[in-house]
Amino acid sequence: MPHLKRDLPESGVITMTSFILWLVIVFLLSVVPVPGIRILSSLPLDKIVHFVLYGVTAVMLYRILRARYSAKRSVLYSISVSAFYGALLECVQFFLPYRSFSTADMTANTLGAAVFAGVYFFKYH
Q: How does 12-51 read in b/e, with b if 16+ C-beta sit within 10 Å?
């Protein structure tokens, strides 16, 4: 992989730094214990959070990739990588006694990445 500082303009380095920080935040949110908070609502709040977190991840990654790749390739890569990162973190949760593995969460992650990246692609392409 090319050296990012040399190959990206300063704004690209800031974007990459922001993206890495975002991935760390998502990781921490995925592995820290969460007390059993009960919210009386008909909305599946947990799935909405997954949808938004991985949607933002995909858009941030799309913006980084777009400097190097075509719009189509960037959107496909950003969706794939975001979905993979979500699946990886779900697998990590499988081994944590205070978290649980969920295919529904993986679905929400993937759908969020696809919808956010798709909307961003069609709006700015």
A: beebbeeeeeebeebeeebeeeeeeeeeeeeeeeebeebb
